[in-house]
Amino acid sequence: MRLPHHLVRSATGVFHFRQKVPIPLQRAFGLRVVKRSLGTRSARLAQAQAYVVSARVAATFDEARRLISMNEPVPDNPFNLPLDDPRNPLHIAPWKLERTPLGFTLSTEGDSDKEHAKAVEVLRVLMGNQAMPVSPPVVDAPVRPKGRVLRTTAGITVGEAARKYLLTLDSALLPDKTRSQKRAAVNGFATWKGLKSPLVDCTRTDVSEWVQSLRAAQLATPTLANKTSYLKAFFTWAQTAGHVPVGDNPAQGQVKYGVREKRLRRKLGFEAFNPEQLAVIYGPAFATLRKDIQLGALLGLYTGARVSELGQLRLDDFVTEDGLPCIRISAEGLGQSLKTDASERTVPLHSRLIEWGVLRHVESLRKEGQTRLFPRTKVGSVNGHGNFLSAAFGRYIKSVGIEPRVGKVGFHSLRKTVVQTMQSAGVPSEYRAQFVGHELGDEHHSAYSRQYTMAELAAKVNVSLTFNMAFA
Predict the structure, then answer these.
(1) Which of 9, 39, 182, 466 is the most buried (most CB within 10 A)?
(2) Helix (H, G, I), strand (E, B) or coil at 34
(3) The pLDDT value given to residue 146
């Protein structure tokens, strides 16, 4: 039989409750793990006891998180109290369970409504979660003010909340691939938790266990980070919509990269091309490529733009500023989108691009009645506007013998090449960030600084992007 979460069996057959203390709370409680013997070898009884203890421990953790978020001290550690003290979350009431011809009977030391409710909950677990009638306490009926109707509404379920949230994802602002990924993450958690479960019952422990189930399915950390970021957006929406109380987001901080993972990501990520590799890529074989693939590869090398940004360019994105021909990268056109706010920018065209004939090519497309720089790009493409360009460039560099040293190479390597070339030439970080659409970490930069003009940007950046290439 598969044991429920937090339930472990010792070598003697006795069941124990065991739960790891979340890392942010370990210092507050002075514990890494809470554990106690349940004093039984009965799996059914141990399951019922663990169910109640788990709920009390979760409530203790939630209260500690609330106090920490308000910069208030956490009270004395309740786990240090004796186990027979009801204030200790690991306390187990001395229930006496008997089976009778009419079913189960359960007696407790107390006769309060709260104690009765706990006993009923235990019986429900023991009976396989069958529904059991619970007699409500007798209270005086409230006096209803005239002209008002009192309504009680049940909390929204996880499944219904997921359905409503996914309706808010605007297809005009998000690529189909991103929307499908968000849908898969939110629906995946909803199915795992139970579509009919109340949304307010979702806790950090639930999200943590969902993440662990995905890890067990061999999903990589970057994938888990994306899924939890999408789930975080879902819970933020639910709080804003009033479906759950505003407070701690249960998906916040669930997946973090360890030091070793960060090091490996840097080591195994995209590599910049060195001068020898660039000489091969843009050598005689480059002329054998289709015209649109040549254009995309040259734009990537002299603008550092992301392949998706290039793939979605429209002909009216070619503009003139300060008397200089430029490319405007924005999300204003149909089907256009950007990765971040900083991605919106205008980039001066390098003289080498003009020599190649980019502007003549744009003008010829206009005469043909085209509106997009790459007419074969599909609006709303599932894999992004630049997928065809990225795939074709990848096949090409492989055919000319370009192999990574440690990590990987591809179209994104051009972006890294541009940034590192500017860095080696001493181009200040503010110019580099504006040119390639990166965020600068200093908040004062955006608050006090202005954007460089195209003349300033071209004078500082374009002169640094000099590459020795043999193509005509």
Answers:
(1) 182
(2) strand
(3) 47
